[in-house]
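Example 3.2
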Amino acid sequence: MSARVPDDHPLRGLFREATGWAFQHGRFPDEQSRDVRLRRYLSEEILARFLHVDQLYRIRDARGRALADVGEMLTEGQAPGASPELRGLGVQRHIGDYTLFMVGIFPESLERVRRDRRRKDAVLMQLGSLVVPFRDPREYYQQAGRRAYAQAAEIGRERGLAEADLFHRLSRYFFTYAQIMDLVRMYLDASRLFEDHRRIIT
């Protein structure tokens, strides 16, 4: 699916319902982490946007190959046509969004990552400046997502972007939002409408 999902598409309404339900039933460390802008971000900027496979794998290497591994995104990722600063922001934001989506909505995909030794994410993880073997892809994705959102927030602050605060919260409360996305997945799994459209993203 390559075209943008129309604003009145039923799935957009379902995603809003699902995130609203998850925010009602999730546990938040403080009121700041319940910000309605974050609920909207999860619904519109992650769930609805990632209905498109071309958005899910939008980061490409220098040869134009779509990247599915976080490790490759970190080392080779580029957002075409942007300044170096915004290219960096685009890549870091995408890594944050991608890891949050995979951890919360498609955790089973991480088990496939673990088993496929041809993938960089199956054998390596980055801890600070060290690259070491890892055993739990979920933990790797969570840490990579937190770090990516933190870097997106830093770049955003330097550029004076309003989204910087939002990225900061996504980094600070990444584990909370991973749990929220897990609740969203539970809601969607119980939805006949989502099941009818699931082929779009699988």
